[in-house]
Structure formats: C-alpha cells, structure tokens
Amino acid sequence: MTILIIAGILGFIMAFSIGANDVANSMATAVGARAITVRQAALIAMFLEFLGAVMFGSHVSQTIVKGIVEVEKVQPVELMYGALSALIAASFWILIATNWGYPVSTTHSIVGGMMGFGLVAVGINGVNWKTFLFIVLSWVVSPVLGGLISFVMFKLISLSVFHTKNPKKSSTVAIPFFISLAIFTMISLFVKKTLKQPLSESFLLGIAFSLVTFFVVHFAVRKLINEKKDVYDAVENVFKRAQILTSCYVSFSHGANDVANAAGPVAAVMIVASTGVVPKTVEIPFLALLLGGIGISLGVFFLGQKVMETVGEKITTLTNSRGFTVDFSTATTVLLASSLGLPISTTHVVVGAVTGVGFARGLEMVNVGVLKNIVISWLLIVPTVAATSAAVYWVLKLILKF
Fold it and tell me: What is its subcellular localisation (predicted)?
C-alpha cells in the first residue's frame, strides 16, 4: 500500500509539472494573440485537459509502459522502482525548465527517465532500441509536420480570406470550413478509438457533426463580421472567436496525448504491486488517468504563465488568424498521434507550428535566438533526465537492496 501511495504522489507531481510546462501547447497562442487572458486560458485548459486525459489517454499510456523498456527482462520489483525513479527525475527537470520559461518536452523527459533505469537494471539490452528509434523519428517528424501544416494552412487562409476581393464575405465560408474540418477530425477519432466503432461509422458521424458546425459557425460569422468597419479588423475579430474554439481543441488533444507521461509509470507500479508480475498486456487503470488529469489541470492553473509567454509571444508575433492556424495544425497532428499510440512531443509540434507561421511571413519574422535556446533545451532533456533517473534508481537499489 505504501508503494502505491508514493507512486500516486509522484505521478501527481509529474502530471502537475506537465500542466505547468505544456499549457503553452494548448493556450499560449490564444493568450499571445490577446484572444483570452491568462486566467481564462488556465480555467478552460483545466477542464479540457482533464477530459482529454480521461477519454483518450489510455492509448498512449500503453506505449509508455511497454514500449521503451524491455520489461520482460526486469523483475517486477525493479520495474516498480524504475518507474518511480523515472517520475522523480522527469518531474524534477520539467519544473526547473518551467521556472526558466523553456517549453521542454514532457514526453522526452519520461522516455529518458524510463531509459535511465532500464540501462542500470539490465544494461544496454534493457532498452527496446527499435521502439526508441521509432519514437525519436517521431520527434523529428512532429515539428516538421506541425510546421508544414501550419505554413500551408496560413497560406490557404491568406489566399481564401485576406487576398480576396471581399475578405468579409470570404471569411463567412472559409472560417466555418476550417473549424468544421477540426470538428470532423476530433469526432471521427473519438468514435473510432474511444467508442471502438467501425471506421465507416466514425466518418459518417464526423461528417454529420462537421456539417452542423459549418452552418452554425457560418451564421455566427455573418453576424460577427459586421461588428467592425475596417475589413481586416473585422476578419481578425472573427478569428479571435474561432481561435478560442481551436485552443479548446488543442487543449483536449494535449490532455489525451500527454497524460501518458504521468499515468504510464503509475500504472506500471499499480499493476505490479497488485499482481506481483509484469503483465503481457497493459490496461491503464482509470484511477491513474484520473490522477493524471487532475494534476495536469492544477499545473496549468498555478504555474503555466512563464512557458505560455515564451511560446505565445517570444518566437514570433501572433495575430488571431495566425494563432488559429497554429492551433488547428497542432491539434490535428497531436490527436492523430495519440489515437495511433505514438507519444510524440506536443511541444515540438506547437513550436514547429508557430515557427511555420513565422516563416510563412518571412525568415526575419522568427526570433532565431529564442528558437535556438528552445532546441538546445530539447537536446539536453533526454540525457539529463536519463542520467538522473539512473542515479535515483541506483541509490534506491543500494538502500532497499531489492
């Protein structure tokens, strides 16, 4: 029972640190573009991060537990204390990075932590290098993909709205279309992956919801577009409302993907402690997802502001239309990945998307100095957390003699 309480506390701290750092991925662009305030962002994110974690989080959690370390080669007790070591090391360094305002990858952190204990417990053969390389590839692909989608989306919005003869009229069709596309993606994946329904049914429901969304948003945009006399102010005013919706979309998908970083190791401890064996298949207990969702929500609320400022304001200047583009691109990439069980870095996706929007306006629009420091922090986080986790595990093994 003691080990379960400790695991729960450490998992909660890890989830708290995820919320504190990764809130930038869900609400930073909306705050940076002045669509909502920091407090409003925190309250919205608290609710949606929790929902995403509980509803979608089990898909990625299974990868975190089973994919990184060759658990069949370790004793059950080693897996328990190894998971605890990973949680301690990862949460420690994430909170330090948060204090400095750096948006590090929480996915990198927990993967590094699990690797660290695996190397000490079994040696170089303790790590599933094939799986690790697959995840590393996703880390490279995620910022590039996020950047490309964001770049293309921004160009599409510019061509379909701002560079037309009548931007006001064009926005009544273009904006509802892009929001409907986001709704289609989210509904289809939810029905397929969470409700376990056939692909055809998930697509049909996605189409149905997106069509309803299109007409509702269309009439709302027609009303909003006349509130401003200046054409471009009017269009940005519409995007301001739309960005709140897309930020909610990002927040939900972020909770789905990143709760795994806290729930996965906790689930490993819970299952081993209750059964005494390492199971062949891992079912993530609802309690672990619940604990992770609550922790993420509180981290968002109490410590989210510093990283939010870095991502939302310091990489490039964001307007509401640019923020909308970043949110849509990020959420689509992340939600697809979470449903596939691929623990990509939400941080990498959103930073790539913000950079993509900046590059779409010209290289000089991106603060390369800030971007360089962020990339350096990405490169350092895995070896740093792995070394710390290995040291914590070694000390625990020495003291407890397991």
Answer: Membrane
